[in-house]
Amino acid sequence: MDLTNFKEEWKYTNISSVLEKAYVTAPSEVSAEDLNAFRMPGHHKANELVFVNGRYAPALSQVLSSENELVILPLKEAMNGFFRDLVSSHLNKSADYIKDGVHALNGEYMQEGMFIYVPKGLKPQHPIYMYHVLDGRQAPVMAQPRNLIYADERSRLQLTETYATLGTSDSFCNEVLEIIVAQDAYVEYYKLQNDVAHASQVNTTHISQIGRSYVHTVVISLGGGIVRNNMNLVLDAANNEAHMYGLYLLKGKTHVDNHTLIDNKQPGCFSNQLYKGIADDSSTGVFNGRIMVQPDAQKTNAYQSNKNILLSDNATINAKPQLEIFADDVKCSHGCTVGQLDEEALFYLRARGIPREKAEVLLLQAYAADIVAQIKPMTVRAYVERLILEHLSVG
Amino acid sequence: MLSIKNIHARVEDKEILRGINLEIKAGEVHAIMGPNGSGKSTLSSVLAGREEYEVTEGSVAFLGKDLLDLAPEDRAREGLFLAFQYPVEIPGVSTTNFVKAAVNEKRKYNGEEPLDAVSFLKLMKEKMAMVEIDQSLLSRSINEGFSGGEKKRNEVFQMAMLEPKLAILDETDSGLDIDALRIVANGINELRRPDRAFLVITHYQRLLDYIQPDFVHVLYKGRIVKSGTKELALELEEKGYDFITEQIDLAALSGLQ
Amino acid sequence: MKENQDTLDLTTPSEYKYGFVTDIDTDAIPKGLSEDVIRLISSKKNEPEWMLEWRLKAYQYWLKLEEPEWANLHYPKINYQDIIYYAAPKPKKQLNSLDEVDPELLSTFEKLGISLSEQKRLTGVAVDVVMDSVSVATSFKEQLSEIGVIFCSISEAIQLHPELVKKYMGSVVPMTDNYFSALNSAVFTDGSFCYIPKGVRCPMELSTYFRINTENTGQFERTLIIAEDESYVSYLEGCTAPMRDENQLHAAVVELVAMEKSEIKYSTVQNWYPGDKEGKGGIYNFVTKRGICKGNHSKISWTQVETGSAITWKYPSVILKGDHSIGEFYSVAFTNNYQQADTGTKMIHLGKNTRSRIVAKGISAGHSQNSYRGLVRASKQAVNARNYSQCDSLLLGDKCGAHTFPYIEVKNKTAIIEHEATTSKIGEDQLFYCRQRGIDPEAAVALIVNGFAKEVMNQLPMEFAIEAQKLLAISMEGSVG
């Protein structure tokens, strides 16, 4: 089977080289020391959920919140127990939107996934950090993480996800995370991708706002081999609000494809999207941003902006913003630009004695700053700022 | 000419006009003043026929016709003109083209032939001089990129072109510097006729320094609470709205007791 | 708003006024497509052997292809064996002057507002008229030839200027380019040919008027325009068809070649029969239009006003090969009732310091679907490529759709590409403002829509612009506000 069927959706990303490889998927032994190198600041006060080769690793994880605040169960158990109805009515809605073989492949591993539930009216004391560790120390490794999160009415969820490959063999992480957001819930979601060049991903985050709620997402992509991010937001209740941000700073041969969808299904929703990218060396940045406004979604306000900077003649930017509008009383717009660093600003800095390379780093940092500023928790933001500075300063 | 009887109006569920009575005769200039939120702009919107406003009670007769029964464009063709507080921009449509469409629609309604290009341009020249407006402005997309003063002058220019029987000026003075205010007021004064009436809606007295009203009414909480001559406007200028509104509020309170 | 909608709903849509059929003797071949049919077409046109070979090669290639499905268009499968590939008004003898044209034909074009009689014409527009499969008349030919401009039907060009046709036909749109260009290459029957020699500024607008008349006929015309160094030409194209219940296929190919410092301005007012209110009938319009700015400092500008056709699939493009070359695309696409349009452009930047500009205005009404699809590509060599695109959509009514699919591909770090798109409906404030000045809602909508399309209309030659504005108003009648 051709896993990237639906050609138009894979127009600018060819992952056949990734899919053709032979991978092991077996569980492996990862120690706390192995993990320490990737731990994010603030982890002492966070619920840390660790997944090794796609499977939940309780021994490495730390859940600080009480069971009344945060429920963490294997999906298998949730499907048969108390949460049966909830899980069965929401699981795998992503498949309605993503019909390719890569997504279907993940579905085969659904049994291994976890279910996370934030009860009504609760704000867990501690944020959630999710680590995906792929152990490539022996052989090429593949992981198929599959998780479902339900943020119930009036609850609050703050989640940061990150990825790490151990060893020198190739890794491929094909993740599907679904987040259901109920009435008056507030969800912040952060994704940090700073993995090694031989780590590839197809990363699907599918968020459904089933009650009037607020969602805020930021995706930061700094590293990896071929990375495809499917970020879907389904606004399935009236007057939903969603904010979607992304930053991709690419070097080497990294290829990052941000594929976003905002599906306005009900009236009066507001969404604002800003994705910014920089492509250097032989890297490729892809932005495919789709906004749909269904016939019932009158009074939709949807704004999208995508900005790119090319730093090298071997780098590529491909952008495909899309508006598909079936309701008339709407205000929708998108803008997309590809350009360079402001030469005037660069000259100004150099005239003040700052060497060109340093001046460039400063300007690139400034360019990235309005996305980074969207990361609300200070610890995570400071961490990302540090990663970006390191990333820009090296070679 | 205009007879407003016990008008109540609301927008969505909020009642804004709560029983307004007003008689305007040909040749008269009436000023309506009042604090923010008193219902001044609602009154002009109801008279012009904005559909968000629902009239729940009362009647309005205009030159013997039931005004509320007419579509907005027919009210205009009957001779009612509203100078908008915030004139909208229509990209790609020049003022000249727009005014030509409006003038000819009105002529058609009155069973007259459309104006030919020569007479139209002649008429335009004449009225342009009156409001000191420039040809270049009229060639541009209507109101697009106009300054506040240009927008208001454009409204007065359109009024001159359409020769209404009743002109409602909705806060035409707002956002104008003193020179623009003088030009706009002069334009309006030029248009005063024995057979034409004006309803001037304003927050401040200063416009009335230039346009002498025959009557001044104070609107508060959806009702006309005081009427008088231009001296009332001066009194308001001096003492502020509070001196009237406090009395009203106190009276309302004592009424409750 | 409710009341406005009612008012507009009540308005009867005016009839498509070009929907009549001319009763004229037609020489048509039987339905269907095969090598024999292609041989027949070629022999009817008395073509040289090389042309026939070219056609057969295209046909063989076409057989291997599948109809494209990526556009945002939905229509039943076309049966290519159910189409007549050649129909010509009889008799088609060599005409010595326009006076010899069948009077019935002349009156048809008079009815369409196209005067072929040179004495009667006041404006300096040379016209080539194509009815069904063949060119029936070309005006001002002699005056043009005095300054070296060749303006004739493509059939004539194949006979008289084979070296030019051989050199350029298929050089911009190869027969292998796509499904419809391959089909056209196999069966094209006529079209216009223009050649502007070096240093000549064509003194009049050149124009072709296309008319489908015969039932079940497909129209496959082919237009080729070559502008030599430092020349200039403005070319206009118009089209209409009778009202019929069946869909008719139109698959044209247009190629433009602009040499150094030359400029080609190509304007289209597309008014093929759009089908009726229920979506029955109408032309399927699958057109490949492409120009190449071959020489440095050359310029190609496409302007289109698309109001007709049941289905429109059309992307007039520019390949910016010469350094400092300029490509422009100005488009108004109006869809009403059940019309579907998927139209836009491709700007392929190859040369240095190339510039392109895209202004696309989509207006959807009724149950129609209107998509903009456009590609801007800056290749690795395209140093300092610049593009600015603005795509705006206006929705009239809540049963139609407006879609925007831009593709931006940049491989050069000195390129600057900007794209902006907006979608909205007519502002209620604008509508009320007009009504307060005594303009009725329908006229107000027309006024606002014309304003919305103004930037594109301004690009049309004066005479055409007035025509296009009227056309837009007619197409809009009966649409919901």
Automatic annotation (TrEMBL), chain B:
SMART domains per UniProt: AAA
Protein name: Fe-S cluster assembly ATPase SufC
Family: Belongs to the ABC transporter superfamily. Ycf16 family.
A GO MF term: ATP binding
Domain of life: Bacteria
Keywords for the protein's UniProt record, in alphabetical order: ATP-binding, Nucleotide-binding
Species, as recorded: Pedobacter frigoris
GO cellular component terms, semicolon-separated: cytoplasm
Residue ranges of every copy of the ABC transporter domain listed in the record: 2-246
Pfam name, any one: ABC_tran
SUPFAM superfamilies according to UniProt: P-loop containing nucleoside triphosphate hydrolases
TrEMBL record, chain C:
Domain of life: Bacteria
Record lineage: Bacteria, Pseudomonadati, Bacteroidota, Sphingobacteriia, Sphingobacteriales
Signal peptide start and end residues: none
Species of the source: Pedobacter frigoris
GO biological process, any: iron-sulfur cluster assembly
Protein name (Swiss-Prot/TrEMBL): Fe-S cluster assembly protein SufB
Domain annotation SUF system FeS cluster assembly SufBD N-terminal: ranges: 125-202
InterPro entries noted in UniProt: Fe-S_cluster_assembly_SufBD, SUF_FeS_clus_asmbl_SufB, SUF_FeS_clus_asmbl_SufBD_core, SUF_FeS_clus_asmbl_SufBD_sf, SufBD_N
Similarity comment: family membership: Belongs to the iron-sulfur cluster assembly SufBD family.
Residue ranges of domain SUF system FeS cluster assembly SufBD core in the record: 210-452
Name of one Pfam family that matches: SufBD_N
